[in-house]
Structures are given as structure tokens and as C-alpha cells.
């Protein structure tokens, strides 16, 4: 095996995260080399808008600045490719075509194309930055919890949603006002669909659950409900019960290898560490049969934190490339998939739920009667809203019961954990 | 390089942690092999009391059960040694003499002998289990935060102290009563000195700070104050200020490479995640210049959680043994030490402090006057105790000022963070 210390890197993408990645590699190169013995040198920067950024001072010492992807694909001198393009097309082309190990932060690409990307792949993909920014949850799950049967993984994975929910809770504000404020401050996109409808959270959950349960999870198997239809009353009601609402991504495995994988607003108890995670922070709890509950908390987004994850991944890839094939750290943390795994429909899983909806035609009694077969823990009417706490029931039964009385489109359902 | 899948393991020590390590390796071997491609086989068990445990059902399939350390030291067939003996003498002999990579959970040994253990060493030592049980903080610091300048690492590292403080806080109990209860329940040793005087916490801090600051930290450079002289009034007073008292181990690095490394009761703000860490749980916050604050929380002790860390270390050692020397993960997370690092005396570091003591001879006014040069934020007398909140001052000045009035032995000092 060739002995080397220096690894040449190509960075594809020079937006927010790309810039901070270049900055971290250049500014902290000495620290990194003293720690690891590995020197990362950026040889090439690719950007579709390279003409606009050519004069950036961090790019001075970088040999190749290009808008031609082939300058990365055809350069055998490059050891590691860092993909921070975002989007699907170019990123996917790069990941499929390159013969080099790749670091990527592209959760949408991974969640949608994991099977395709790893099939017949000869080189590594590392993706610590794709979930929860700087929090080293991927390495922890792939390398630190190898002897655990991971029974449950759940977390707050989207800073925008958590910022909105925290603000509603702490300042008694309505969803729409907080969303607008978040958009003004740059915490939420002009089109916030991806975030508030839970899609981004589900992309990350797809990655985490694939590692936890040792199988490539299809994104379309994930049940997804976001926070778009939450109202202040939900938060007030939860808080009266001593509970806090968070958008939780969860993957649960039962003893028969049935997995339930879902994103849903969730009422958390005060003694749950995740109930304390506020504003744009992310956190993940992994429940292992040996380790018990381990919680990882930190900055889930932002260029600087994300660059920390990207650069440590580059070091891991450099080391991993020196290990004989069979014993390398596997891309998704398993060498043999769990064939017995069955992903079930969350709508059929019994849990405790909080349900709220509005009816113009019927009264509380009508719905109480409709829930006759369901264990009703609490029921009340407030500001024209009917609110229920239902125990040991599944979403399909809830909807079915409500529809026996009336077809209602806007039903807010939150799991109680 | 020889291609292998199976790594033969010797487990030295068959107490609490040793038993659970054997159990985890045997019970979860299939999971682990599917994840990693690596099969761990326990060949040898060493225990000074092996005659007593020979009939244990988990030992049935293990080839060698011995009370002779040479059966490990002289067996070339063994690939990895797991040291869970505890204590110093035999453990040290094993770590020094073995030519194989070693996993150890022995924080006291590491903190006191790190320099000696790694000097001229040809094989690896892994020690995830030595700090905070199942929490993968060592791997995170050594591998995930390689591009960060780690500016501060602080944590709750001793479950016994945290159990006592949490119980005092939640149930308004006196230190002595809670300690006795903890001893009755097995959470505290009959001789609790190691825990409540902060020694165990300092051992773990020694390990964490060595990694964070890239140098072997001498244990005797660590300032240590435990919780032995805390009283309920301290907790009540803190809580009236909206603060929670925890025994915090902290290592702080300033921009000039001056490090302050200390264990001291600390008053934490409610928005600090560590203020929410209750009972026997551990948590560590790492502050990096890129990653920001990342918090790791979980089970800090117990056989099962500790075994999770031990077994993942064995896998890491197996992989690491396949990498060319220069690029292996270094034992303490650095290949070149930070020569500029200066460990300074915490007693000279200015911080905000809470101070409480009793005087039979003098009144509050006398001490207020003695603190003339110090910024007094609050001062009061309660149940015969004088309590002060002092700003931007160091411990030496505080003691000196008090002694201008009266020599007092029992002064409780807590940092305010």
C-alpha cells in the first residue's frame, strides 16, 4: 500500500457550505495535520458560477477553479471529492461517475437514491454532514454502537421547524406570525414547504433508519406529517399537560423486526432531554439494547458547523481507503443487510395521540360517541376546536371514527411519547 | 497485509463490567458481524478468582479460563486484549507488557500513567469506556472534531455526585441523608471519597483534556474541589437565582494556548443543556471553533452500557491495526503534541463565583468590607451562613480577602457559568 500523508481534495460547490469548507480546511490545516497526520490540500474547486467567485481570497492558492465537472472526474491526482452542490442532477452525476471516495452533505440525494448510489460502488461515500450538521451522529451509529441492537432512534432534525415551535411555545405566538418572522430573519425559506411539511426531516430520518436497522429504507415508506396546521391552542394544551411539542423523526424496531418510520409532531415529557432542545438546535436520541439512551445535541445547520462534519469525513475516508475491503467501515454501517426487516405502516401502529379538529356541524358529544371503542383520556372544546387525548390507538382508527360523524380535512394529530 | 475477519480476544477481569462485556460479545455477535464484517471471538478469560466463576454459562464456550496473566501475555494467537480488571498493579503490568492492542476502561490508570503507557508503545490503546460509559465522546473528539480548535470541554462525569446533587435539588434533602441513601442503593461506595471529592471526575477530565488540547495532561495539574461540603442552602440559593448546581469538570483553552483544567461545583443557567442532566446520567459539552457547542448525553456507568463502548473499541482497534502506522488513529488523538500548551493554576483565573462560609466571630459587614476590591453582586446571611456572589475574581483573591478577617477552614466555592 502506498504510504502517503497528503490527500488532494476537490470541492464541488461553492455556496454557503462550500465556502466554509474551504475556509476550515485552509485555516485549520495545521491543527488537523497535528491531530491526524493527514494533510488535506484543496486542488480543485468546481462551481457553476466560478467566474463570480474567482477573486475570493481563499481561492488564491487553489490550482484549479472550474465550471467543468470533468476537471474533477478525469483528474486521477484527486484523492477525495467533496460534494456540496446541493440539488439533485449535477450532484448525482458526480457521485455516480467519480471513481474517488466522496463526502456529501446532500440528504435529499441520499434519501432518494441510496440504493442506486451504493449498488456496485467501488469507493466510499461519507455523509456525516447530511444529518444534523456538526453532530457526529453518523459516525456514532456506524462505529460506536456496533454491538447494540438499536431499538429506537428519534430526533429533532430540522432547525426551521424547531425554531418555529420554540418561538410559538416561549412567546405565545401563532404559527403564521412566527413563520413570517423566521423568513424575515433567514431561518426559513421563502417557500418553506420542504421544512414545515417534514420532507427535510424525513430525508434525514431515511438515512438514520437505514443505518440503525441495517437496510436501505425506501423514502416512500416513511410516514410524514409536518407542522403546517399546528395552532397556538395545541401548544397551550400540551403545556397544560406538562408536555412540549416538537417535530420528531422516529424509527422504532420491535422484537419481530417490524420497523415503523415516521415524522410527526410529538408531545414530549419534561424529563425527555429532547423537550429542552430549543430554536435552531438539533438533537438525536439513540436507544440501544446495551447503551440505553444516548443523546447527541448540537448545531444542525450553518456553514461552519457543517464544514466540521465534512472535513472529519474526509479524514475518515482517507483512513478507510487504507483498509482491506472487507473490513472497511461500510457506507451505511452494515456489510450484510437485515433481510428480515419489514417496514410497516405507522398509521396502523398503536400509540397515544393528541387530536384536534374543528367541526361546524357537530358537538363534542358526537365525537366522544364516535370514539366509543377508543380509550379517551381527555376531551374538550376550546375556541371552537375539539381536542382529544386518545390512548393505545392508531391513526387509521382515529380518522375512521371521526369520519363516521363528519368528513373533516384539517385534523391535527400529534403522537404522545 | 493478512486478510482476516475473525479477531481473537482476551478479556482480563471478570467483575461487573467484564461479565457484561463477555455477554455482549456472545449475545450480539451476529449483529456486530453483519454490521462490521468483523467477528470477535473470546479465546481467553483471566480472573484472579477464576475458580469461582468457572461454571458461569457464558464461559462454556471459552477455550481458556485462567488466573495466570502469562496465558494472555504469551499467546500470539490473541489479537486484542480487553482490560477490565480495575485497580492499578495487574492492569498496568498487562498494558505495559502486552504486545497486542488493548481496550481499557481504567481511567485511574490512564490519568496517572498516560505518559508512561504511550511512550515507545508499538500497539494501540483504546479507552472509550473510561469516560462516561456508553457515550462515544472519545471517538467524537479523536475523529469527528479533528478540524476544530476545541476551546472548551466541560461535563458531568460522575454519576454518584450527580445522583446526590439531583436528589438534594429535587427533594430538598441534606447532603448526608442523600449520600447514605445512595450508599444503601448501591449508587455510592462505602468509602465515597473517590467520587464525592472529585477524584474520579478529575481522572476522566485528565483524559478528555489531553485529547482536546493535544498534549498529555499531568493529573497533578488539575484543580479539584468536590461536593463534600455542599449544604442544602447552597442549592436553594442557586435555585433562587434560577441556577442549578452540578459538579462540573472543565478544560478551557484561551487564545494564547493557556489551559485551565479544573473540577468544581458549578452553577449552571437554565438554558445550559447540562443543567437538565439528572441522577446517574453523564453529559459532556465540547465547544469547537467550527462546530460550536455539541453535547453528548447518556449512561455514564453500569456494566451493559460500558460493554457497548468496550466492544466498539475492539472493532476500532481491529480496523486501526490494518492502517499504515502514520495514518492510524493516534492513541490520544494527536500525532504531534501542542508544545505551546501551558497549564495554568485555576486559582488565578478570573470567573464569577458563589462563596459560602460560616463565621462565629464576625458579621456580614466585615466580609463585605474585606471584599472591597471585589465586585460583589449579592451578599446575604442565612442560617448563620454568609453567602456571596462575586464577579470577575479568582479563588486566591477570595481566600485572601476572607483571611484578612478570619481564618476559615470550611469555605464552599462554586463557579458560576
UniProtKB/TrEMBL annotation, chains A, B:
It catalyses: L-homoserine + NADP(+) = L-aspartate 4-semialdehyde + NADPH + H(+). Residues 136-314 form the Homoserine dehydrogenase catalytic domain. GO terms for molecular function: homoserine dehydrogenase activity; NADP binding. Its EC number is 1.1.1.3. One of its GO terms (biological process) is threonine biosynthetic process. The active site is at residue 204. PROSITE patterns: HOMOSER_DHGENASE. It is an enzyme of class 1 (oxidoreductase). It comes from the Bacteria. NADP(+) binds at residues 12-19. Residues 13-122 form the Aspartate/homoserine dehydrogenase NAD-binding domain. NADPH binds at residue 107. NCBIfam families: PRK06349.1. Belongs to the homoserine dehydrogenase family. This is Homoserine dehydrogenase. It comes from Brachyspira suanatina.
Amino acid at each position: 500500500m502506498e504510504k502517503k500523508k497528503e490527500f488532494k481534495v476537490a470541492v464541488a460547490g461553492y455556496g454557503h457550505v462550500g465556502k466554509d469548507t474551504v475556509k476550515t480546511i485552509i485555516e485549520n490545516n495545521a491543527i488537523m495535520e497535528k491531530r491526524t497526520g493527514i494533510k488535506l490540500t484543496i486542488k480543485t474547486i468546481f462551481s457553476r458560477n466560478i467566474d463570480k467567485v474567482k477573486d475570493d481570497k481563499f481561492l488564491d492558492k487553489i490550482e484549479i477553479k472550474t465550471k467543468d465537472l470533468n476537471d474533477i472526474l478525469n483528474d486521477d491526482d484527486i484523492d477525495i471529492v467533496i460534494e456540496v452542490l446541493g440539488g439533485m442532477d449535477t450532484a448525482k452525476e458526480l457521485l455516480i461517475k467519480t471513481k474517488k471516495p466522496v463526502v456529501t452533505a446532500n440528504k435529499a440525494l441520499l434519501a432518494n437514491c441510496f440504493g442506486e448510489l451504493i449498488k456496485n460502488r467501488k469507493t466510499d461515500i461519507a455523509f456525516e454532514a447530511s444529518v444534523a450538521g456538526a453532530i457526529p451522529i453518523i459516525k456514532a451509529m456506524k462505529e460506536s454502537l456496533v454491538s447494540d441492537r438499536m431499538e429506537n432512534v428519534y430526533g429533532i432534525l430540522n432547525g426551521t421547524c424547531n425554531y418555529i415551535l420554540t418561538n410559538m411555545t416561549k412567546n405565545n405566538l401563532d404559527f403564521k406570525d412566527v413563520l413570517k418572522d423566521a423568513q424575515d430573519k433567514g431561518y426559513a425559506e421563502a417557500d418553506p414547504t420542504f421544512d414545515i411539511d417534514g420532507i427535510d426531516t424525513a430525508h434525514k430520518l431515511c438515512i438514520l433508519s437505514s443505518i440503525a436497522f441495517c437496510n436501505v429504507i425506501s423514502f416512500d415508506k416513511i410516514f410524514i406529517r409536518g407542522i403546517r396546521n399546528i395552532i397556538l391552542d395545541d401548544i397551550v394544551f400540551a403545556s397544560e399537560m406538562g408536555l412540549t411539542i416538537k417535530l420528531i423523526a422516529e424509527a422504532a424496531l420491535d422484537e419481530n423486526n417490524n420497523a415503523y418510520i415516521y415524522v410527526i409532531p410529538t408531545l414530549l415529557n419534561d424529563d425527555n432531554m429532547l423537550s429542552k432542545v430549543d430554536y435552531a438546535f438539533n438533537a438525536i436520541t439513540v436507544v440501544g439494547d446495551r447503551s440505553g439512551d444516548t443523546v447527541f445535541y448540537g448545531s444542525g445547520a450553518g456553514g461552519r458547523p457543517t464544514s466540521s462534519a465534512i472535513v472529519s469525513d474526509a479524514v475518515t475516508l482517507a483512513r478507510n481507503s487504507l483498509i482491506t475491503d472487507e473490513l472497511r467501515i461500510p457506507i451505511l454501517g452494515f456489510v450484510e443487510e437485515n433481510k428480515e426487516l419489514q417496514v410497516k405502516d405507522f398509521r396502523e401502529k398503536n400509540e397515544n395521540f393528541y387530536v384536534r379538529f374543528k367541526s361546524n356541524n357537530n358537538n363534542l358529544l358526537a365525537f366522544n360517541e364516535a370514539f366509543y371503542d377508543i380509550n379517551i383520556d381527555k376531551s374538550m372544546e376550546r375556541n371552537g376546536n375539539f381536542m382529544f387525548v386518545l390512548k393505545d390507538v392508531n391513526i387509521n382508527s382515529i380518522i375512521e371514527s371521526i369520519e363516521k360523524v363528519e368528513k373533516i380535512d384539517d385534523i391535527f394529530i400529534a403522537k404522545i411519547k
